[in-house]
Amino acid sequence: MSSQLDPGLQPQRTALSWGRTGLSMTAVALLVLRAGVQEHQPMFLIVGALDMLCAILFFATASWRRSALALDKIHAASSAWMAGITALVAITSLAGTWLVLS
């Protein structure tokens, strides 16, 4: 039995969703950074910088997936990579929630 790539559109939708998530995270990061500058709150700046790092990782992943799709060499990302991104997003989300509620 040979393993063939999925000929459907699921890989393209996944790559596009990574790009959209990165774009929305960039918007959130810029808003948090702006609030940190206006309110002179260093914690907002730290969380905003972490959010921007997450956005960069999402854009890098989207770019990698689009490049792999163009070469027909799309494979699942490593679970360690996905776990790392998920942990970073969760930490920045919790930190942002804490900042808003405090």
UniProtKB/TrEMBL annotation:
Keyword tags: Membrane, Transmembrane, Transmembrane helix
The transmembrane residues are 21-37, 43-64, 76-101
Q: Where would you find this protein in the cell? A: Endomembrane system
Q: How does it sit in the membrane?
A: Multi-pass membrane protein
Which intervals hold domain DUF202?
6-65
**Superkingdom:** Bacteria
The record, for Pfam families, names: DUF202
* Protein name (Swiss-Prot/TrEMBL): DUF202 domain-containing protein
